[in-house]
């Protein structure tokens, strides 16, 4: 594997993260495939287990090159919109023909649509070390409507930083959301890295 993975984990700010992903866009999928990238399919299957309507629009947050969108489509979801901070990644995603719409977003900015617009959301490897900070979880949850579902993953490196599961606990401990699913499993088996997949429902 190239040094892109190390670079992304070492990125110090949103601008650097965007530059690394832009540079990585053309080789990203082949490199992750070589490592057995398993998380998109795991997340899609977990969301499918709890989703009441696969025709409902789903927001794929941090969609990257569209591997997560492909997995969601394969799991039966019909209307998928993607957002990401990297224009290079979005260009690759656009060629897949999976997404109804794709938009570039700025790190830390409000999401470019009304609250409650998406009863389903996914953040596949999009929150954590080398990706969005823990605060992005709160952004998604605030935007989710009542009884809306969010599937997301936290890899083993991210789980060493307590802020990420702590953000989820801020919602579940007070009853503002319920954790429906949590399971550890393979993320990048080629480098022996696991990830935990979660499905959370807003109360």
Give keywords.
single chain, alpha/beta, Rossmann fold, seven-stranded mixed beta sheet, globular
* Proper CATH architecture: 3-Layer(aba) Sandwich
Query: Which fold name is given in CATH as the topology?
Result: Rossmann fold
User: How many β-strands, per DSSP?
Assistant: 7
Number of helices: 8
User: Mind summarizing the main beta sheet?
Assistant: 7 strands, mixed
The overall pLDDT, averaged over residues, is: 89
Strand order of the largest sheet: 3-2-1-4-5-7-6
Assign an overall shape.
globular
Multimeric state: single chain
Assigned CATH superfamily: Vaccinia Virus protein VP39
Unreliable residue runs:
none
Give the helix level as a range of percent.
Answer: 25-40%
Distance between the termini: 42 Å
Residues in β-strands, percent: 15-25%
Structural class by secondary-structure content? alpha/beta
User: What is the H/E order?
Assistant: HHHHEHEHEEHEHEE
> In angstroms, what is the radius of gyration?
15 Å
CATH class identity: Alpha Beta
Total tally of structural domains: 1
């Amino acid at each position: 594997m190239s040094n892109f993975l190390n670079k992304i984990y070492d990125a110090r700010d949103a601008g650097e993260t965007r530059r690394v992903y832009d540079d990585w866009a053309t080789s990203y999928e082949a490199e992750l495939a070589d490592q057995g990238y398993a998380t998109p399919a795991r997340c899609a299957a977990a969301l499918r287990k709890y989703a009441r309507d696969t025709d409902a629009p789903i927001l794929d947050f941090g969609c990257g090159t569209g591997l997560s969108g492909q997995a969601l489509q394969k799991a039966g979801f019909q209307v998928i919109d993607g957002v990401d901070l990297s224009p290079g990644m979005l260009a690759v995603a656009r060629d897949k023909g999976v997404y109804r719409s794709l938009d570039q977003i700025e790190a830390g900015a409000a999401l470019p649509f009304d609250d409650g617009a998406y009863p389903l959301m996914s953040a596949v490897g999009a929150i954590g070390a080398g990706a969005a900070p823990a605060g992005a979880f709160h952004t998604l949850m605030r935007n989710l409507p009542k009884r809306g579902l969010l599937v997301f993953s936290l890899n083993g490196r991210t789980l060493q930083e307590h802020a990420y599961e702590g953000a989820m606990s801020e919602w579940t401990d007070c009853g503002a959301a319920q954790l429906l699913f949590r399971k550890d499993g393979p993320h990048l088996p080629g480098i022996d890295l696991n990830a935990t997949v979660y499905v959370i429902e807003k109360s």
